[in-house]
Amino acid sequence: MYRVVDTHAHLSDLEDLRTALERARGAGVCAIIAVSANLKTGLRTLEIAEEYPGYVYPAVGLHPTEIGPDYHEDLMFVEARAGDCVAVGEVGLDFWRRRGEPSKGEEERRRQVYVYTKQLEIAKRRGKPVLVHSRGAWALAHHLAVSMDISKAIFHWFTGPLRVLRAVLDSGYLVSATPAVEYSRAHREAVREVPLEQLVLETDCPVAYRGTPSEPADVVRTLRGVAELKGVSEGEVAEVTTRNAREFFDLP
Ligand SMILES: [Zn+2]
């Protein structure tokens, strides 16, 4: 059993949190970064972190697909509580066109950019790292982080073009791998390219992989998938990625 960190878990969305966290401890998960997507999940995430001190570390943020009419309230919440968190997230841009949906209109894109930029400012003011969702808008999400002079960011579950990935890595940012490393061509290509020193592990739970909802214990699947893909031992991947996560989030 290896000591691993799940650096991106939506714990507020898990059905049976207590049991899931027991299984996580049993699987060697030594810390969890609990991200959130809006005000409601943010409040719950802060509660969960208080219930599991020294194990669950919170992050607050307004996710690009969660921007509603009252988004100013969500932003005020992020501003007020970012100081109590290890990071600002999950934030970013999502221009991905899902099957059967129209492509994102100009107004929606502009609003996403505004909300993301505001949260980059908050992170900067509070001295917090940023957890970035960049699906379908990889280059712009990276460009905005760099132009806002953000020094610490994780580009979560990267599936974008390799040239953008290389720019992300050149900026000194980290990239996270999910259990999709087992089968997603785009994600496998990205993870293969990321040096271990810039990689961290996650689950994005409760996202379902191949039909099964995930939980933090599944970060072990990510570990196994990364080790296999890179041809390195699981022990080495665990050691380096856990060290990366501890340094990045400044964990005790
Ligand atoms: Zn997420």
How would you explain this protein's 3D organization?
The model has no long low-confidence stretch (mean pLDDT 97). The chain is α/β, with parallel strands linked by helices. It starts with a strand and ends with a helix. Helices cover 44% and strands 16% of the residues. The chain has nine helices and ten strands. The protein has one domain (4-249): Metal-dependent hydrolases (TIM Barrel, Alpha-Beta Barrel), CATH 3.20.20.140. It is globular, with a radius of gyration of 17 Å. Helix 3 (71-81) packs parallel to helix 4 and helix 8 (219-230) packs across helix 9. It has an eight-stranded parallel β-sheet with strand order 1-2-3-4-5-6-7-8. The protein has a two-stranded antiparallel ribbon with strand order 9-10. Bound molecules: zinc ion. Residues 8, 10, 35, 90, 204 line the site of zinc ion.
| Bound ligands, each once | zinc ion
Distance between the termini: 21 Å
Distinct helical segment count:
9
Mind summarizing the main beta sheet? 8 strands, parallel
User: What oligomeric state do these chains adopt?
Assistant: single chain
Provide the domain count. Answer: 1
Look at the structure and give the mean pLDDT.
Answer: 97
